[in-house]
Structure formats: C-alpha cells, structure tokens
Design a protein that fits this description.
The chain is of the alpha/beta class. The protein has 19 helices and 12 strands. Helix 9 packs parallel to helix 10, helix 10 crosses helix 11 and helix 12 crosses helix 13. The radius of gyration is 25 Å and the shape is elongated.
C-alpha cells in the first residue's frame, strides 16, 4: 500500500497518470505485484513509463520489462488510452477519485478496473449473491426470491454473471427494478456466458459490468478465481445459495473472510451434494440464512422503507396470477397443493395425506399446476414444485 500513500500527495494530477496506469494494466503478463513494485520505485505511473528498459529490468524480471517496453510500440500511451475512451468503457485506476472505496483496502486490490455502466454509490448497501452453476430447483427459487427482495429493499446485488445462481439472482433483481453489478472473468465487451445476455445488457443501464481485464480479453479458467475477490470486495457481505464442497463459490467465501466480510449461507439437506459446501461452512461458523428479512435485521444494513410491504404485495399478486380467476374453495385447494409440493419429489400418496384430498381431485390440480409451469411430473407418480 506504500505506493498509494506515496502518490496521494499528487492527487490533483490523477488525470495525467491515468493513461500510464492503463498502459501497465493493459500489458499481458503484468499484474498487481509488478505494478506495485514499479510505482513504489519510480514514484508514479508516468515515471515508470519514462524509465529506461535497463533500469526497469533491475526492478522486475527482464521478460516483464520487455513486455512493457514492447507495449509502447503499439502507439503512444495517449493514443491507446483515447481508443479505450472511444469504446465508451470507463477506466478507474486506484488513483481515480471514483475508484470504489470498498476495493481500496482489500488484499491484492486491482490497480484498475474497466467499467461499462455506473459504479455503485458508496452509501448504498451491497450484497454478493453467489452459488452453484448447476443448481437445483430449490436453489433457483431461492436465488430468484433473494434477488427480488434485495432489490425491493434498495440493496445492490453483486455477482459474477455465471450460469445458475449468479445470473438468476441478478436477473431477478433487475426485473424488480433494482441495480446489479456483474464482475466478469473476461473483458467488459464480451458477454460470457451468452445465455445471460439480458443481464449483461440491462446491468449496464441499471448498474454496471466490471472487469480488471482489458477489453477483448477472452474468458479463460484461470481468470475467474481472481475476479472473485472483486465480487466480495464490492459487497458488504456475501450470501451463498448453493455450493458443492469443492467449488469456485467457496473460493469467493474464503476471499470474503480474508477481507473481513461476513458470509451467510443457505442450509440444505445433508444428502444433497449442492448443499454440502454450505453445510460445511455452517459448521465452520458462517451465518445461517433463513430469509432476506432476517438477514437485514441481523446485519443492520440500511434498507428502503416499507420494503417488506412491497414484497408481501408482490407475493400476493403472484399467487393471484397463478390461480387466475379462481376464488373461494377452489382457490384454497390450489394453494394447499402448492404448499404441499416441494423442490424434492413427492409421490401422490404422500401428497394425498398432506392435503387430505382424494386422488382424482389431487391429480386434476397437479395437472393444472404442471400446465402453468408451477409443478412438474418427474416420474409416473412423483411431482415437484417449479420456480
């Protein structure tokens, strides 16, 4: 952190330094440690640019010094930086006055981030919602519910735009009128995975797409673990919906703990592989997540007033939409069957006992729910609840 302190006395010149930080972060093979060594030695990014190749090679490995020198030949640093601005991609170095305060003090903070959209306001609470890519129906349901309720509470949803829990929670937040911030493991001008194109585009309008990797950087397995520290770094706390015992989700959880952030997890059945990572974290002292309302009350995060009333009204409207024009006893019967269904298969005998309904009437309601997309038949005699 000494390099930042050294430069803070020149804050009025941050605009002068921006192109030179861009030159370093945009050079392949040059990471935070290398940039930190050079700036600490030279005093500023511009001074690093003016160093002779021979002198630079005394501070960092010769091959890295050669890579930086070769990057100068792509045109003047000003020309390179101007081309970035023409793409309408924001560039925020550690010295930029709008660089997120939450990121400044995390271990191995990025020296710069590329942004399409608007950075989160410092005063607005943010929660990272992450989890398994191959999630269960239960996980989908909870991700959707959490994304919606957090948005209704005025809380930013931070995630990685990944398949499964990440993308589902972010899409739900956007559909509820909230803001979401997608941290990518590739350049901001690349939508990955393509199936989350809706979130990718809408996040730029109601939040942002963020990356520490330069534009046109393709997605690669080695890039995703490092981006996780930015996901947890931008958040006030991390919420895990589903996770296996060995997964990238747990890497993010470890990074959050290193950053001094709280981690909450959704518990699951001990026989479910998608919940084993969560249950293991509970044994290790992670917070138990039961609902957004309890989470916000427990953590004391500031929320939008009367958000609970909004959530309740939305749930009521969804039930009305499901039941259509039904009313009275028929309405109650459908709700009773819905309450009895689970995200794990139940056979008709079990459902008959729980609902106290005759087989013919139960099958009629189940068939209607399957047509509505709220239930699914998984075998000849078993049904599950659908999101």
């Amino acid at each position: 952190m000494g390099d930042i302190k050294q430069y803070n006395g020149q804050e009025e010149n941050w605009e002068v330094q921006q192109p030179y930080i861009y030159w370093m972060t945009n050079t392949k093979g040059i990471g935070s440690l290398t940039i930190g060594k050079l700036i600490k030695h030279a005093g500023s990014p511009k001074a690093v640019y003016e160093m002779a190749l021979q002198d630079m090679g005394k501070i960092i490995p010769p091959n890295k010094a050669a890579a930086l020198e070769a990057a100068k030949e792509k045109g003047t640093v000003m020309e390179q930086y101007s081309r970035l601005k023409e793409k309408n991609i924001g560039f925020y170095s550690i010295y930029h006055p709008d660089y997120p305060r939450r990121l400044k003090n995390i271990p191995d903070r990025p020296y710069a981030i590329y942004v399409e959209g608007t950075l989160p306001k410092e005063e607005t609470p943010s929660i990272a919602v992450i989890g398994a890519r191959q999630c269960s129906d239960y996980g989908r349901f909870m991700a959707r519910q959490c994304g919606r309720e957090l948005a209704e509470a005025g809380i930013n949803v931070i995630s990685g735009l990944a398949r499964g829990i990440d993308g589902i929670s972010q899409k739900s937040a956007l559909e509820a009128g909230g803001r979401t911030y997608a941290v990518l493991g590739c350049g901001t001008n690349i939508c990955y995975p393509g199936e989350n194109r809706f979130v990718y585009e809408k996040a730029k309008e109601n939040g942002a797409v963020i990356s520490e990797y330069p534009p046109d950087t393709p997605p690669a397995p080695g890039l995703f673990p490092r981006r996780n520290r930015i996901i947890s770094g931008l958040a006030d706390l991390v919420l895990i919906i589903e996770a296996r015992t060995k997964s990238g989700t747990l890497i993010t959880a470890d990074m959050a703990l290193e950053q001094g952030k709280e981690v909450y997890v959704l518990p699951g059945r001990v026989t479910d592989p998608l919940s084993q990572g969560c249950n293991q974290m509970l044994k290790q002292g992670a917070g138990l997540f039961t609902s957004v309302a309890c989470l916000l009350e427990e953590t004391g995060l500031p929320v939008r007033k009367k958000w609970e009333n909004v959530t309740q009204q939305n749930n009521f409207n969804k039930q009305d939409a499901l039941c259509g024009k039904m009313s009275g006893e028929e309405d109650k019967t459908v709700r009773k069957v819905l309450d009895a269904l689970d995200f794990y298969p139940k056979d008709t005998e079990c459902l008959m006992q729980e609902t106290q309904m005759e087989y013919r009437a139960l099958i009629c309601i189940l068939s209607r729910l399957c047509l509505d997309g709220r239930a699914a038949r998984v075998s000849a005699d078993q049904f599950i609840k659908k999101v």
